[in-house]
Known about the structure:
By secondary structure, this protein is an all-alpha fold. The chain contains 10 helices and 2 strands, in the order ααααααααββαα. 77% of the residues lie in helices and 1% in strands. Strand 1 (214-215) and strand 2 form a beta hairpin. The chain has helices at residues 5-25, 30-43, 48-76, 82-106, 109-128, 142-159, 164-173, 178-203, 220-241, 246-268; strands spanning 214-215, 218-219. The protein is globular. It has one domain (5-268).
Amino acid sequence: MMLDPYLVLGLLLLGSCTGFMAGLLGVGGGMLLVPFMTLLLARQGVEGSLAVKMAIATSMATILFTSLSSVRAHHRRGAIRWDLVTSLAPGILLGGLVSGVGVFAMLKGTSLALFFALFVGFSATQMLFNRQPKSSRQMPGLVGRWGAGAFIGTVSGLVGAGGGFLSVPFMTWCNVPMHRAVATSAALGFPIALANTVGYVIGGWQMESHVAASVGYLWLPGWLIVACASVVTAPWGARMAHKLDVAQLKKIFALMLYGLAGYMLSRASL
């Protein structure tokens, strides 16, 4: 697959936007990447169902870079709850591997698009309504955190996102302050991306429809170009996150998710 200058420019712009959103909202950028990456791949002649899968896999792989870039900016401000990162990570790794190697490969691309749309729409509604947690509610114990991590890792792998759309609402529901939840979610993006990317490569290794310059479901040119752009802009988003209040962050998060859910719902109906 030859890359024309306009495609490269589009990938650079996409990477810049998703990197900024990853730092701002702790969502890893995948929620923005998947719909646009699906569109770009489809315009390159990739069959619709496969385009969705490759977009999800490539989106997740870019989070390996985006996460590290935004984490450094959040860590400098002391906003990351590293105790939550280490206790949620084991479940995330397990869930990500199960999702990437098994469940992802078995599902059709249209089913994944529908799942993406419905779950993201639900997450947006929860955030927009701003339901306040009980003051006594705290994070669960170690076993509960492993279970939550496994769920986050598995679902994130099915939609190609860094888990922020699940981990941020979960942590705020457990009375973790919004800014700390966003920062901690950014740190969780790396183990989520690592486990699922390995799974996508293994799960798609023997697929019948092979796309040039791809490894499994991973589209290498899109991955590298988007990743290079996103690591530059992710720290800008992280700095902006500490200047906005909680209400603004939640509204931005919810509105962004609604728009992307609508697009992927349209893809599921094709």
